[in-house]
Amino acid sequence: MENFVFRYLSQDVVYNVTRRFLELLKAANSETLVLTAVITPLETVFLDFESAYKKERKSEYTAKLAAGDEVRDRAYLALRHYLVACSYASLEGYPAAADTLLSIFKRLGWSMQLAGYQTESSRLGNLIAELQTDENAALLTTVEATLWLERLMTAADAFEAIYQQKLTAEAADTTTSAYRLRKALQNQIEMSLSWLEVQQQFNKSDELSILIGQVNELIANTMATARANATRKSSVEEE
Predict the structure, then answer these.
(1) pLDDT tens-digit map of 182-219
(2) pTM score, whole prediction
(3) d(CA 146, CA 149)
(4) N or C: which end of the chain has fewer CB within 10 A?
């Protein structure tokens, strides 16, 4: 059978694809193809995930974090692209200084803006710390990039302030987050797919073959779209 590669899937995609998977299972469930062993545990985990997922989508912090992340991504790319431009400039000292600074970006993660919130925060923190050393600060001054770094620092601080507010609010909430429930849901999906695969080997039927074909199509289409989106986003950001 086909398999999901969950690292490519956003929270929205995981929610929608699980709902569709359950629909296929329920539609195929019959007297001759009993699927309660798969449907019941999967639906139980999914309903818990759905409750947390919908609650978090309504959270005021979801939109604020997305907006704040967009601002810091743009600030990061502005600084990086400015330094790339400086590396080509016919100005004394610019190419050498810019190349040295860009080597730090490459070492810490050239496309860190594509990472998850926490990973990006960690990498940006390391980048900013290195750029603020006396030696690198002098290079930034050489290429007149200090203001671009300050804009990045402002954007990064603003995002972190929102993120800390979110963490404080979540600490006061006793419900489990969708992020934590997602892992349990992924495991249940994988067990469900394994169950279907075993049944196909030992209790094969036309009904089961049709269901597995539908599930494989769902997985293949989902992964093709996810990989294409990841490639497209990466290409755009690298330009």
Answers:
(1) 999 999 999 999 999 999 999 889 999 999 999 999 99
(2) 0.55
(3) 5
(4) C
